[in-house]
Amino acid sequence: MSMKTSTHLLADAPPAFVLGTMAMTGYYGPSSEADARNALDDHLDHGGRWVDTADLYANGANEILVGKAIAGRRQDVVLCTKFGYLFGDRADQRGLDARPERAEAACDASLKRLGTDYIDLFYLHRVDPNVPIEDTYGAMADLVKKGKVRALGLCEVGPNSYRRAADIHPVAVVQSEYSLWSRDPETEIFDFLRENGSWFFGYASLGRGILSGALKSPEDLPPGDQRRDMPRFQGENFYKNLELVKLLEDIAAELNVKPAQLALAWCRRHGAAVPIVGVTEPRHVAEARDAMALAVPSAIWKRLDTVFAPDAVAGLRYSDSAMARLKSGR
């Protein structure tokens, strides 16, 4: 079987960055809906188009927020969302379920929450180890035929899952975690995607906030913050990683820029990745725009690559059980 390569989604080139909305509904602690909506407005007012959400975020509330924010300007937005998880208030209500019969129901629910009649980019949030990806992706491809979805993407996959899906329908984008302290995609999939005509979008491009320099101890994480369950933010790991952040701050100071901006610019340094920039207020959007315009000497990139060598980061990015789920998508 010959693999079908991706067709272009909407433009001749990928965006400078994608606006990520997950933190707008409390994933990392309390957030302001007014600030979130102002941030979305600012992004669109300054020519940004790409907006990333998921049905999982805040049990659908994130999609509702995004839908309200883009009402009346849907034509300005490249709207991306995801499915594949069950969600609920209790742990026993949550988990992966990407059976093909769920795809259309999940899509319809997202369309309703988002207040639109089509989704530009519809992702499989995670590969369900209990369901052949061909079955799930085939059901997603049917949504394209029905006009409910314009293009399809995959999250946290490797070449094997990509090939199996792409033989059914083009994969426009692969999304995985990517930042100075999460560099696996560089060796796992960057070259592969380039050869097969798909884009790569990297989420958690600021290391879930630690690369901004704002966090100084695990106690800075508010109650209910999901990072409290992530090994890199726990105990000795946190403080080892903070030493790397201090070096980032020193290098950023030499350039008279914020560490977050330098970290974002690093994600685009070789053109293979588009960062998904998680924001909660308008100033974050403005800082991301400025970061994309930075001119950084190649010697700085080499220093950062050395400081943030993959083996320098302490701790896994998710719990053992969550990491095991990721492996099913490779």
Characterise this structure.
This protein has 330 residues and is an alpha/beta fold. 39% of the residues lie in helices and 13% in strands. The protein contains twelve helices and ten strands. It has helices spanning 33-45, 61-70, 100-114, 133-145, 159-166, 185-188, 190-196, 235-255, 259-267, 282-292, 298-307, 320-327, and strands at residues 18-20, 50-52, 78-83, 85-86, 95-96, 119-124, 149-155, 173-177, 199-203, 274-278. An eight-stranded parallel barrel has the order 1-2-3-6-7-8-9-10, surrounded by four helices. Helix 3 (100-114) packs across helix 4, helix 8 crosses helix 9 (259-267) and helix 9 crosses helix 10 (282-292). The longest helix is centred in the C-terminal third of the chain and has 21 residues, at 235-255. The radius of gyration is 19 Å and the shape is globular. The two termini are 20 Å apart.
